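2024-03-11 09:14:02 DEBUG pipeline.ingest accepted 1 chain
2024-03-11 09:14:02 DEBUG pipeline.ingest length=290
2024-03-11 09:14:03 DEBUG pipeline.predict start
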Amino acid sequence: MSTAINYPVHGAGLGLRRALMREVAEQPDNAVDFWEIAPENWIGVGGSYGKKLRALTERHPFICHGLSLSIGAPSPLDEAFLHRLKRFLNTHQIRCYSEHLSYCSDDGHLYDLLPIPFTEEAVHYVASRIKCVQDFLEQRIAMENVSYYAAPGKEMEEIDFLNAVLEQADCDLLLDVNNIYVNSINHGYDAETFLRQIPGERIRYIHIAGHYNEAEDLIVDTHGADVIDPVWSLLEKAYQQFGVIPTLLERDFNIPAFSDLEQEIKRIQHIQSNWRQPLLLVDEHNLQHA
């Protein structure tokens, strides 16, 4: 179990949407421990929204989860975007930058996250591009295990592809627990077995979210519903295996009242407290008998 990792944030976080900004500003003592934003939605934004964001990033811990790095794309990395991104991360003192292990562009933006072929060639290609981004930004980045609905050109298992990229690129991992569950249903593997093969020392934080059941054997990762019990259970399994890790609730569509989101945040915090307490008791016991 990993217990000595220096995480960029702590506790339970929430994705910040513009629809929430007024309530967040009016309720500064809410349950949220840290916030996540997509830099593409904020780079270059001025006016009242730009001022509100700056005020929030000055007061609260923030991390960024990107949408358009397109690390697996055949086209060259967008250096102009990387320059803007680096300035944004520095300006707002962003504590961690993560992206999807996928691609979303070629000659133009595809407006979807498409799966990278699970091949040795793709491992080398993607790892090289991740290294370039880390060198440019002068910081480690975290890649997210993504949901996917087809595996074109598959030559290796998803977990083997993921671990090979992390190792060759020497980058970190954003562990999306909901994506593991979604993929386990859609592609017929055991979610807990997948989780046990994750390198815990590379995890920087966790995503948890809801999804849509299209059919018994097809789930769509929408981030538009409440988290379901099997996903909560898998989150607990992650804490059991790796220790308590900062965890962020994703909600991008069908956004309920902020008070409802707070209830899910508090559930994350409750689960975290349940897994911290036994560790504290063990430490106290060891101290008494040292």
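2024-03-11 09:14:41 DEBUG pipeline.report The longest strand covers residues 203-209.
2024-03-11 09:14:41 DEBUG pipeline.predict end
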